[in-house]
TrEMBL record:
Protein family: Belongs to the peptidase M24A family. Methionine aminopeptidase type 1 subfamily.
Cofactor note: Binds 2 divalent metal cations per subunit. Has a high-affinity and a low affinity metal-binding site. The true nature of the physiological cofactor is under debate. The enzyme is active with cobalt, zinc, manganese or divalent iron ions. Most likely, methionine aminopeptidases function as mononuclear Fe(2+)-metalloproteases under physiological conditions, and the catalytically relevant metal-binding site has been assigned to the histidine-containing high-affinity site.
Signal peptide: none
InterPro entries from the UniProt entry: Creatinase/aminopeptidase-like, Pept_M24, Pept_M24_MAP, Pept_M24A_MAP1
Gene3D superfamilies recorded: Creatinase/methionine aminopeptidase superfamily (3.90.230.10)
Binding site for substrate: H83, H182
Species of origin: Rhodococcus gannanensis
Name by which UniProt lists this protein: Methionine aminopeptidase
């Protein structure tokens, strides 16, 4: 299913996006050495509930997971990269943490992810990997707009990732979003320009470049959800929900509100 949002629905999408961005930044500011992943999940639940919103994850049960997910935020540490299930784990200095959050408010969903290093340590390889996913995300945003194609976005993202020396897994990537969290079209993190669906005003896309330091192969934890690098290397993940407009694109999930 591909949805094209009306002007009224886009206004609601901006509110949802702001909520997601603000929650993620609050979680980042609260997370320190000694924070437990279950505390992060509890903080997320509290903020979603206070906002009168709904989690897109608690009842999420796709074919690839062992659902329902049953938690409010994905918490992926070090070699975990996607669908990280919160569990009783205490963060240490230098851990690389990725938080992925999807929320629905007033019937419209938004999805975003951030990666950061916990504590005072700044391992150069981890910082560089996070920076690469953020640059790739911005390249994808810059390639979007009315009349552009999905392949233009995928090519822009993949070019940044490959130039930095990372291989690209295409099993999971970006996606359409609207009244539900995961919709068509699929937005791979690599592709050929000029190919795929033409972008129209009112289309919402969640763009999410992610990489693993020395592999493109994933393994699944016994929890049936958490995806890790096959080699145990570190990983990073960045994501924003964007809206295609008549004039270009808006990034909906920045903390503090949508921006061009």
């Amino acid at each position: 299913m591909i949805e094209i949002l009306s002007t009224t629905e886009l206004t609601r999408a901006r509110r949802t996006g702001t909520l997601v961005g603000d929650i993620l930044q609050t979680l980042r500011s609260r997370t320190t050495v000694g924070t437990n992943l279950l505390d992060i999940d509890d903080w997320t639940r509290e903020m979603i509930t206070e906002a009168g919103a709904q989690s897109c994850y608690v009842d999420y049960a796709p074919s690839f997971g062992r659902g329902p997910f049953g938690h409010y935020v994905c918490t992926a540490v070090n070699d975990a990269v996607l669908h990280g299930m919160p569990h009783d784990h205490t963060l240490a200095d230098g851990d690389l943490l990725s938080l992925d959050l999807a929320v629905s408010l007033d019937g419209v969903a938004a999805d975003s992810a951030i990666s950061f290093v916990v504590g005072d340590s700044r391992p150069p390889e981890s910082v560089a990997m996070i920076d690469t996913t953020e640059r790739a995300l911005q390249a994808g945003i810059d390639a979007a707009g009315p009349g552009a194609r999905i392949g233009d976005i995928s090519h822009a993202i993949g070019s940044v990732l490959r130039e930095a020396g990372y291989s690209i897994n295409t099993d999971f990537g970006g996606h359409g979003i609207g009244s539900t969290m995961h919709q068509d079209p699929h937005v791979p993190n690599t592709g050929r320009p000029g190919r795929g669906m033409v972008l129209r005003p009112g289309l919402l896309l969640a763009l999410e470049p992610w990489v693993m330091a020395d592999t493109d192969e994933l393994v699944t934890d016994p929890d049936g959800w958490t995806l890790r690098s096959a080699t145990g290397c570190r990983t990073a993940h960045s994501e924003h929900t964007i809206a295609v407009t008549a004039d270009g694109v808006e990034v909906l999930t920045r903390a503090g509100g949508a921006s061009a």
